[in-house]
Specification:
Length: 421
């Protein structure tokens, strides 16, 4: 039997909510189902904030492109890597009659030809050719390229801003979160396994489910409970939490004495194959050690740790665990519909042992996500029933409280700087 590890149960007893300067009052439910609030979120948050839309690895070489719907706005963004290696997003809209230029969701090509009338653009947005050009009036091709969307890259993450001129820079937007997270090791960043589903739930309901562990004993008794709780911490209280302006991070408890149940033979066999015990990246001991040494990974550097959730406002969570990172994306569709996208980044490997661990990990993730999805959709029905006007949140739900507070603040703010203050 493995040696028992000290549990550090007292670490999970701090009043994080008040320490971070947040109110402890009940939280209003209206932002989760009100149509008017959703419309205000679209205008005041998603049309003004810097939105995280992907990673550079999705467009690895000149000519690479992806096309994404930036909901809840109407923008269809064409994100390319130009000939000089720059990442640039454009409105996927032809300058002629407004048709979408690119129908594919991803690919690699040096130019784009609109299927409607064959106007052709370089992948840096410049208009190249126009059929029967001489029949237009006072026509200047130089003024008719694809319309750029403000685009910045930080630590491999691609951000866009839909304002005609951003009120703040990306650096200002990220604030103190940027230096805290810079230098993070993105193991397996070019090889994600992707899950997508449309949910009958508000985007904040979906986001809330992944930033607290209070629900784990009830919703995940057979999948996650034994790893996230213990006799010392039966409700999986958080180890720590920090707020960075509109952004936030929480560190979740993990049972340091968790052992695979011998009855679960496939899991036990897979666990015995790993060099480092990680289940995501199949990294070496040296790679894992470097990753785990980063300040934002298990910031307390304590044994009873399972993972960190780093929420980049408004709609993306970058999670880190013992073996690597993964992400959750919440794209609002309406006040009660969300497109959820989970990306689990796992390095390509030819090792049977490493692949076995990865396959097990994916199967467990899918099971747990399905359990969460069922709960999300039932929660949305309850929120819409009119039976309650507020939620009663506890200390380990600090991430939820801060997110709702920030959404309300952005909706009410006249300027982005005011929202970030």
């Amino acid at each position: 039997m493995a040696t028992k590890v000290a549990d550090f149960g007292d670490v999970a007893n701090a009043n994080l909510t008040q320490r971070e300067g947040l109110s402890t009052a009940p939280v209003p439910i209206a932002p989760y189902h009100c149509r008017t609030f959703f419309e205000q979120e679209t205008k005041q948050i998603f049309e003004r904030a810097w939105l995280l839309v992907g990673r550079e690895e999705e467009i690895p070489e000149p000519g690479s492109f992806v096309v994404k719907d930036i909901t809840p706005t109407k923008v269809n963004a064409l994100i390319t890597r130009t000939a000089n290696g720059k990442v640039q997003a454009f409105h996927n809209t032809c300058s002629h009659r407004g048709s979408q230029v690119v129908y594919a969701t991803e690919g690699r090509q040096s130019r784009f030809t609109c299927p409607y009338h064959a106007w052709t653009y370089k992948n840096d947005g410049e208009l190249l050719t126009v059929p029967d050009e001489s029949n237009f009036f006072d026509f200047d091709k130089k003024k008719c390229g694809l319309t750029k969307i403000h685009t910045e890259v930080w630590e491999g993450w691609v951000f866009i801003n839909l304002q005609p001129e951003p009120e703040v820079t990306l650096k200002e937007y990220l604030g103190d979160f940027a230096p805290y997270f810079e230098g993070f090791e993105y193991l397996g960043a070019n090889s994600p396994v992707v899950f997508e589903i449309e949910l009958d739930a508000n985007w904040k309901v979906a986001s809330d489910a992944f930033i607290e562990t209070y629900h784990i004993s009830a919703i995940h008794p057979g999948t996650l409970k034994d790893g996230f709780t213990s006799t010392h911490n039966p409700y999986g209280r958080l180890l720590d939490a920090k707020v960075f302006g509109s952004h936030r991070t929480v560190s979740m408890y993990g049972n340091p004495n968790y052992q695979t149940d011998p009855k679960h033979r496939v899991e036990a066999f897979a666990a015995s194959l790993g060099e480092t015990g990680n289940v995501i990246s199949a990294a070496t001991k040296a790679e894992t050690a470097k990753y785990l040494s980063h300040r934002a990974v298990n910031p307390g550097k304590v044994p009873p740790w399972s993972m960190d959730v780093n929420h980049v406002f408004p709609h993306v969570q970058i999670d880190s665990g013992p073996g690597g990172f993964w992400t959750h994306w919440f794209w609002p569709l309406s006040e009660n519909r969300t497109r959820y996208e989970g990306r689990f980044y796992m390095a390509e490997t030819k090792s049977f042992a490493a692949r076995m661990i990865q396959e097990l990990y994916v199967s467990r993730v899918v099971t747990a996500i399905c359990e969460d999805i069922t709960s999300m959709q039932r929660t949305q029905k309850g929120l819409e029933s009119g039976g309650k006007s507020h939620m009663m949140l506890q200390d380990s739900e600090i991430g939820i409280r801060h997110h709702v507070d920030q959404c309300i603040k952005w909706v009410e703010a006249d300027t982005v700087k005011e929202a970030l203050s």
